[in-house]
Amino acid sequence: MTGVRFGTIHSYDDLGLALCGVEITPPEPKVYRISVAAADGDIDITGALTDGDVKYERRILTVEFAMLGDDRDIHNKYSEVMNAIHGMEFSEIVFDDDANYFYTGRVSATALNSEPLKGTIIVQCTVDPYKYDWGDDWLWDPFSFETGVIPTVSPCSARYSSAFSMQFVSLYTASLYTSLPPPINSAHSGIF
Q1: What's the pTM?
Q2: pLDDT tens digits, residue range 86-120?
Q3: Nearest to residue 192, comparing CAs of 69, 24, 38, 47?
Q4: What Rg do the C-alpha atoms of the chain give, in angstroms?
Q5: Is the pLDDT of residue 185 over 80?
Q6: Which of 13, 47, 159, 164 fits a disulfide with 52 by CB distance 3.0 to 4.6 angstroms?
Q7: Which residues pair with 66 in a beta bridge?
Q8: In Å, what is the CA distance from 45 to each residue of 38, 55, 108, 169?
């Protein structure tokens, strides 16, 4: 069953929750504006201190889960979910249908809606603006040919590796070495 893994806890395998829906909101850009007296509008200085790079706020992931059972079972399951994930910070929040990437953030179970023999739990995750890739070799099974990204290594990133730095310097002249672009930041994939 498709679900979400919060650290080592899987929503279906460990908690018995069936995934009903997911809403992933885009992160809001951090916009900075200065109002100038006696002028129309304002001045946008969003990228002034970051070399034009826009920074982002944390984003919200809203996940809806369903469970079956009588009222007692539903309330017991809700208590189990609250004890397992509510208020916890997870370094890996992974959706089964997007297994090549993970989010990092805090989880809160916000609401329980109970009907006869059915209950739904709304879980909100406040996560970093980017979804991160694992940094490992990519896998064929979870890879999507429509939306997937195949990680590549450029010669520019090899110059910062300790194993390759000496070889790289000896292969290129100093003038070529200094004219290379900055290294690729592997800390995050920069993918929304």
Answers
A1: 0.66
A2: 999 999 999 999 998 999 999 999 888 888 888 99
A3: 24
A4: 23
A5: no
A6: 47
A7: 18, 120
A8: 18, 12, 34, 39
